[in-house]
Design brief:
Layout: H1 3-15, H2 18-25, H3 29-43, E1 48-51, E2 54-57, H4 59-86, E3 92-97, H5 104-113, E4 118-123, H6 126-134, E5 140-143, E6 152-167, E7 177-179, E8 187-191, H7 196-206, E9 213-218, H8 224-229, E10 235-238, E11 250-256, E12 261-269, H9 276-290
Length: 296
Amino acid sequence: MDLLSLRCFQAVARHEHISRAAAELRVAQPSVSRTIARLEAELGVRLFDRHGRRVRLNQYGTAFLRRVDRALGELDDARRELADAVGPDHGTIALASETLLSLTGLLSEYRNRYPDVRVRLFQSTAELMSRQLRSREVDFCLASQPLTGSSLDSVELLREEVLLVVPRGHPLAGRERVAIRELADEPFVSTRAGHWQRALLDRLFAAEGLVPTIVCEGDEPGAAPALVGAGLGIGLVPAMSRGAFGHVPVAILRIDAPRCDRTLSLVWRHDTYLCTAARKFRALAVERKARPPTEP
C-alpha cells in the first residue's frame, strides 16, 4: 500500500466515477481500475459497489476513506509546514467559490500585496466545496450557503439584499417592490440546483406553497442579467452586482419576502495547518469586511 494508491482511492471516492478520477489524476482509466483492485485485494474487502463505470463507496470504503483522508491530510500539512518555514511569503493557496466573481476584488488586493504566492481557484457547488474541504483539496471556500462538517470554522464577510431583475419592457419594470405570489407564473433565469441563487429561489417560493418556473439554468450566476435583458425571463441578483449591469436593459425591484438576502462566508478547516500565505489571505478578507463602505 503506497501513497499513490491511497491518492488514487481518494480521487475515486471523491468522484465515485473511474473515468473522472482518471482525468483528475491524469492517468489511464485501466490503471485506476487496477490500482483499486490491488488495494481491495490487499485489504481483503471491496471498497466500492460497482454500477458500470460508476462506483459508490460501501460501508468498508467509507470507513477506510476517513482514515485515508486523515493520514494524507497529515502528510500534506507536514509538507505545507516545511515549505512555510523555508519561504513564508511564497507557497500556494487553493480557493473554491460558487461564483468566481465574488473573489475578484479580494484576490486583486491579495495579489498586489503578495505577488509570489500562487493561487488556485475552483468553481464549486456547496456540496462539492464540503467535499473539497474534507479532502483538503482547498484551503478556503467562499460560500453563500452553510457547509456541512464538524471540523469547519467560518467568518461572515458580507450580508446583502437579493433583488429581482426584469427586462426593461416588462410589466413589472415600473414597480419598486413585488411579492412572491405575483411572480408565480413568471419564467425564471436561474442557476442549477446546488447554487445559492437556486436554493434561495426555491425557498422563497416554497414558503408560499409555490414552485418557480425555470426556463434557463446554468452554472454562472453572473450571466443572469444579460439573459434577463435579452428577454429570456426574470431572475435574482445580489445587490452588490447591480453596478456591473452596464447598459444591460433591465429594471431592478425589491422583493417583499423575509430573509431575501445572501450571506457570504469564508470557510476553512480548523483541524488542518494553514500556511502563512493562507493566514494572510484570511486576515485580508476580515480586514476588507471591517473597512467603511466608502473605502475601496
